[in-house]
């Protein structure tokens, strides 16, 4: 009903890609499909138009023309796109591809095409906002869209620098997030598509879906291929997933256990304590301390939040980087709130008690909760868009939608996460190591029974490097839930996950799955939505709930030689940013 809302049991609608089911695709992808009209008046290029790639490369040796070279390299790179035709069209018309472009130049140009479309999209959404004075809900939706398109722009801007410096993993992570934000804006406008007082919403949505999102997906497809094959474009193809039998990294790659987390013994820059007057602490509220920190800093800003209950909404904005929250322990330092979607105008996204945007966030030894209660629907405790963030020894308590791991790379170590419905959700690449995941009683009348999913991962494009990985975790119920469960197991059904979006990806490795996990293991979203495209993997789990003999056929056992794809190093590049010493 609102931007960023994840409905229970509503049929999802997602933008799809025309090329996906095209039976001519594999046939076509051998050829450059740039049409004559697109090459404008370049008659000299005519002979090239119908050549196969190999013919074109032979031709290349005798043809010093840079434009012709670009046609070749654009065609090669666009094999990575899910929509090859738009990829070739836009790039060949674009003035961003330099003469004698290398593959990496084409990728950077593809990102620029996406950036330009983003600029156009922002203008269109601004026009909706301008036409919405007096319509509070639509104004709010348009403003939310503009916000998240700004985050998208921010990530695309960073990507160019990463590519220039060879940071392909970062580039892929950032474009994955940029795409998720664009999709978020698109879906936030859906409610207003038929408003009679403005005709602006439908064309805007059409542009976001068929130009902006497609151009970003095109760039992402190239990044995904570059990540795996480098510039050997002869191997490039639209991104594949594990369901196609494809793992980007695997046997032989770094799979050693990474020991690290929030460094111990960090010195507090400022202190926060509750109800204490007379200069004992610097601040009384967590948000005041966050606001006091420097902008765009590469140094940590350590906030020691002393024992106490902090009833406040905390936001760490984009420019507050490397903020660290240290508490006095789970259940001792508690940040609490109760916002929920039952309140007028409230969205799932905004309901978070603590919401992060700034990169490099860390927290240890505290509790974050949303107490809206079991009948309040979506009510987020913690939401994060912080790339390279670490949460250690943290507790997250809520009901529906406790932990919104919204985007980018997040590491949760030894955390305790409690909720129900599908309480760990989002579009991020989130890694859960040694966490305790607890289902809690759900409705006001909990004896009635219910279906819960532990996760709902949302990935809309197979090129996105996102997913949820659970390693060495325990999936159980709270004591109260387990006694309910054992009183009548047949009505209390719990699943490891359900697919919020088409390419949902979630794996459980060497976890303990307690009896509450239903034998079929995973739950559909709506009919057969996403069942042939998602990837739900299990490996070497123990506990009554780990028995796979009755599992749904659309879940998988991860082949042993590919388990390393889901290591901290390979999945979130943790070896490059998770501190293994106490400095
Ligand atoms: C989104 O765009 C694709 C083409 O890229 C199209 O096939 C699909 O129908 C569109 N979806 C919606 C909901 O407009
Ligand atoms: C991205 O870069 C463009 C061009 O340099 C700039 O105008 C824009 O403000 C940047 N966007 C963000 C969110 O930083
Ligand atoms: C807008 O109209 C279309 C076509 O009639 C319909 O499918 C869609 O559900 C409507 N959307 C809303 C928000 O009413
Ligand atoms: C968290 O608390 C534990 C136990 O008191 C302590 O050993 C650890 O150093 C603390 N972590 C940080 C980052 O302060
Ligand atoms: C605006 O949204 C609220 C829910 O957040 C809803 O109750 C209200 O009816 C909406 N107003 C209009 C004019 O649609
Ligand atoms: C799961 O919870 C039950 C009931 O609270 C408890 O008896 C059991 O030991 C827990 N399992 C694990 C693996 O901690």
* Count of individual helical segments: 11
Radius of gyration: 24 Å
Overall average pLDDT = 88
For the record, give the distance between the C-alpha atoms at the N and C termini, rounded to a whole number.
46 Å
The CATH superfamily of the largest domain bears the name Invertase/pectin methylesterase inhibitor family protein
Strand content: 15-25%
What is the CATH domain class of the largest domain? Mainly Alpha
Keywords: Aspartyl esterase, Cell wall, Cell wall biogenesis/degradation, Disulfide bond, Glycoprotein, Hydrolase, Membrane, Secreted, Transmembrane, Transmembrane helix
EC number: 3.1.1.11
Function: Acts in the modification of cell walls via demethylesterification of cell wall pectin.
Catalytic activity: [(1->4)-alpha-D-galacturonosyl methyl ester](n) + n H2O = [(1->4)-alpha-D-galacturonosyl](n) + n methanol + n H(+)
Structure description:
The chain is α/β, with parallel strands linked by helices. The protein contains eleven helices and 24 strands. The protein has helices at 25-28, 53-60, 66-78, 84-93, 103-130, 136-164, 168-189, 201-229, 286-292, 479-487, 568-572, and strands at 270-272, 301-305, 308-311, 314-316, 323-327, 333-337, 354-356, 362-370, 382-384, 389-400, 403-405, 409-413, 416-420, 422-426, 429-433, 436-439, 450-457, 467-471, 474-477, 492-497, 505-509, 512-513, 535-539, 556-557. The chain has a 17-stranded parallel beta sheet that branches. Strands 4-7-9-11-14-17-20 form a seven-stranded parallel beta sheet. Helix 9 (286-292) links the parallel strand 1 and strand 2 (301-305). The longest helix is centred in the first third of the chain and has 29 residues, at 136-164. The chain is globular. The two termini are 46 Å apart. The relative contact order is 0.09. The model is unreliable at 7-30 and 35-66 (pLDDT under 50). The structure holds 2-acetamido-2-deoxy-beta-D-glucopyranose (6 copies). One 2-acetamido-2-deoxy-beta-D-glucopyranose binds at residues 13, 15-18, 209-210, 214.
